[in-house]
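Figure 2 data, in text form.
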Amino acid sequence: MEVVTTITNVEFGKMINAAADALKNNAEKINKLNVFPVPDGDTGTNMTLSMASGAEYERNETDTHLGALAQATSKGLLMGARGNSGVILSQIFRGFAAKIADKETLSARDLADALMGGAETAYKAVMKPTEGTILTVIREAAAAANRAAKESDDAVVVMKETLDAAEKALASTPDLLPVLKEVGVVDSGGQGLVIVLEAFYAVLSGEEITTEIDNAALDAMVMSLHNAGVQGDLNPEDIQFGYCTEIMVDIAKGTTYDQEFDYDKFYEHLAAMGDSLLVINDDEVVKVHVHTEDPGEVINWGTHFGSLRKVKVDNMRDQQAEAAAAAEAQKEAEAKAEAEKPAVDLAVITTATGEGIKELFASSGATIVIDAEQAPSTQDLVNAVKESGAKEALILPNDSNIFMAADQAVEIADVPVKVVRTRTIQQGLTALVLGYNPEGTLEDNAEAMTAALGDVKSGAVTTSVRDTTLNGLEIHSGDAIGLFDGEIVVSVPNADIHQAAVELLGKMIDEDLELVTVYYGQESSEDDANKLEEAGLAIDEDLEFEIHDGGQPLYPILMSVE
């Protein structure tokens, strides 16, 4: 591949999609850098899904101007952002895109300016920036890019200096954030960013990036074009080119091959036969999508350049008739659902895992409960607000890793939204039960629910997924561990969940607390919860216990003390 000194729209697209692939391939590596040895460390997964959304928006953008592609990437990352790491990544690309909105190509100077814009925007997005995180990595990387751009007009040189500085900054994160040094890992979000920058450098330096020609990028573009031609309010008779035709040709192979492949000649012949044409090729394969009245001629044309690997023809007029009927049925169903939907002035949007816990939220007044086995994206939260049909909404994240996505949803939603910063399921339920007044205003409810958080302490018991030392505790893979308001305070060998729960409860209760609520999960039982109650009463016979089947994964026991 050719080394790139100036970045065009083509290279930019390759960079974004290579970064998405690289994060996907390294997601588990990043997940394992989680400071806490709990089974739900998901920074890698969140960054992967966030970047995948950015890449999808980039691929689907019909404007090929580089600035427009950058804006599309930024929008996709924003809407798909999951977890705080994903949101910060989206902010980096937001600042990056803003700096190059009017650029058709990127010089080395433009690249450096974009990276500095990304660092600046990311820092502004975080209320209390913490060094030793992804923020440190992007700041140091951008500063190196700026220095390099003063000395060189080669984008590859600037990208190499950027990557080197990012790797050095990542290595320094344990020195800046003591908890990382104690556990013996680098920052997981910073590692994700380094992987993104590695992919950028690989594309610009000419390294071969392995992608299949029959890939998601082309499929997404095909679907976009196809949907534009088949839509509910279009008369089938108005379709000029009625056959959606796709072929894939192995270039210079087979018995029918009699012409050397020339892209312009190949493309121009097909362009005269229809519309919605896409032709993508590498040295071995060419793939075609076109809407035409003569699919046979498209197929015949392809055989001149090699052997057919794939042929697909759809009658779009028949599909349009079906789409029109389906669209009409959908409109009727939506109108009926809207008519039957109870009017909601103020909605409560919350997240939860476990069927029992979801039911508790619903019965306590939550309007919509989003499944949180995978951290919800900004788009998920915005969609929930819209689905509620309410004039205003409250969001209970129940996880600090969802805070930033919730904050983004506040900015994007069409109605006023406030976030009550609940860090745990237990806090979310307490806020809802003690603080929520369906007749109150958005502001009053947010204030009352936030105040209610001071009335509850949260505990969780799970099993360690790796060896580590944290908070003075030597923890081994397979130990039962207890977390008190997010800090590991108990470690018990041999996965003794009951003993860990008893020890954790002992640390949580004091003379001012009266009620203990236990939620047993998928890997626990009501009998286990009853035994915990017996042990708790042995510690303090005046305690009251409530026991619920939470059904939550990963955490056999959740408990709250009030």
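Caption note: The longest strand covers residues 306-315.
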